[in-house]
Amino acid sequence: MKRLHFKLTLEPGLKAIVRLAQLHQYTTDLVDGERVLIGPALRGRMLLNFPAREPRDVLDSLLGEGPAGWNLSGHEDGRSLLVVSTEGSGVAFSAIARILEQVAPEAFLKPIAFEPLPGNTLTAISRSLH
């Protein structure tokens, strides 16, 4: 998977925004090198999707190793839009798609805007696919 720099603007709905915020908090909260609490909405979603697995194991496999490489923010116009933007070394687009699929599938019900950010090394044909 190639790490890229991009920004996604989506409208997943309030419940999905809460789960994504809890996931981002989970990725950044570390105590002695271990991730700590999973928010209740996110834990419930993981138990619903993967009833036979420990939510922490599912999330750790979904997130992978190292820093998250992405951040969340609200959209500047005040609507219920969420912006997922890459940072640091970036993240593979497919990784964010998997996160949305498992944590906030409602996001796929409305249009998602993809904006490549400076520093990408996408070919012209790759850029045209987005």
From TrEMBL:
Entry keyword set: Plasmid
Organism superkingdom: Bacteria
Name listed for the protein in its UniProt record: Uncharacterized protein
Annotated source species: Aurantiacibacter atlanticus
